[in-house]
Design goal:
359 residues, alpha/beta, D-Maltodextrin-Binding Protein, domain 2, eight-stranded mixed beta sheet, two-stranded parallel sheet, 14 helices, 10 strands, 17% strand, disordered N terminus
Length: 359
């Protein structure tokens, strides 16, 4: 079989994108100073570009914190998910958000399973042990979806179609592979896989009719725009095929999105891939600042829910996740103890994780 160069394999634009993110993160990790005290500086909330769920969430959280606390925050978008964790690890940003699949690989310095590692290998062998969980946030729902006019109802219907599901540097590419393979479709042979630098660009292409389906999260401004302009049809994923999703990461699950999720049928529920989001900070963030962030965010969740319905999941009871995969920040732990939701089991698990992360 004739070998292909990496440049030909990923395409020139994707190659430049990966190179840009890689160089950016090398510079950040090599020259970054320790995390600064929040008392004297603005806190940087890092996010993905405008139009994504990340941007909506971080702008909303920033506004809430600025309004109801003495902290001052700003939002700084970055080109791809690995840059967010890298910036917080280095102390150049103070709050990030990551779904449990990529967070699991990032904090442990692991590479993904063969064929399911796109976006996971940036920190392979270099675990980001400075990261600490602040709040267990909402559930993220990933799915393949199309438009009302496409006439596509199921994942097998995608055979021979143009699918926007390959995003260099984005772990969501794994979901595309898993969902197609689960239904006997080879991502390299049975569909026309189209590369995009950002998921928002892929949704724009779907609205314009340039692709037939997209795989990404079912939230964010671009998803709402898609629903308004073209109608969104979510392709259900059979729960019996959960083993294919588990190849992405052990934290991935399956469930039914809430009724307010774009593309949900009114008369019945359907199942898609699920992932829990974490808000995370640097371990050296001032304890008072971390305490204030957790308290302010969780105690004003009702106001956030007016921005996006999924903020309803932000509450004190669910903010402490069972079997969490990184230690919680001491400032957050202090707040959870005051609220009576931090149990002896949580404390034991926290101590076990701290032993791993501090060594």
């Amino acid at each position: 079989m004739k070998k292909m160069s990496l440049r030909k394999l990923v395409g020139s634009s994707s190659w430049l994108f990966i190179l840009m993110v890689g160089c950016f993160m090398i510079g950040v990790l090599a020259f970054a100073p320790p995390a600064r005290s929040a008392a004297a500086d603005k806190l940087v909330f890092t996010s993905l570009p405008p139009g994504t769920k990340w941007y909506t969430d971080m702008v909303s959280l920033s506004q809430i914190v600025n309004r109801y606390s003495d902290l001052v925050t700003i939002v700084q978008p970055v080109p791809a998910p690995p840059a967010m964790t890298g910036l917080v690890q280095a102390g150049q940003a103070h709050l990030g958000m990551d779904p449990s699949d990529s967070f699991y690989y990032t904090v442990n310095g692991l590479g993904g399973n063969p064929g399911f590692d796109e976006g996971y290998n940036y920190y392979k062998g270099k675990p980001l042990k400075n990261l600490r969980i602040l709040v267990g946030a909402d559930t993220q729902y990933y799915a393949l979806f199309t438009t009302s006019a496409a006439g596509i109802k199921t994942i097998p219907d995608l055979k021979g179609k143009k699918v926007a599901g390959y995003f260099p540097g984005w772990a969501v590419s794994n979901y595309t592979n898993a969902m197609l393979l689960a239904y006997g479709l080879d991502p390299k042979k049975d569909v026309q896989m189209v590369k995009f630098g950002r998921t928002t660009q892929a949704v724009e292409a779907l609205i314009a009719g340039k692709v037939d389906a997209v795989c990404t999260s079912l939230a964010g401004a671009k998803i709402v725009e898609l629903e308004a302009k073209a109608g969104i049809v979510v392709l259900p994923f059979d729960p019996s095929k959960i083993d294919f999703l588990k190849k992405i990461a052990p934290t991935v699950g399956i469930g039914s999105p809430p009724p307010y999720t774009p593309g949900m049928p009114k008369d019945k529920s359907l199942t898609v891939s699920t992932n829990r989001n974490y808000l995370y900070v640097n371990k050296n963030l001032d304890e008072k600042a971390a305490y204030t962030l957790a308290k302010t965010i969780l105690e004003h969740a009702a106001e956030l829910a007016r921005v996006a319905d999924y903020f309803q999941e932000y509450n004190v009871q669910s903010a402490v996740v069972n079997d969490f995969i990184a230690p919680y920040h001491p400032g957050a732990v202090k707040y959870f103890k005051e609220k009576g939701v931090w149990t002896d089991a949580h404390e034991m698990h926290q101590k076990d994780l701290l032993k791993q992360f501090e060594n």
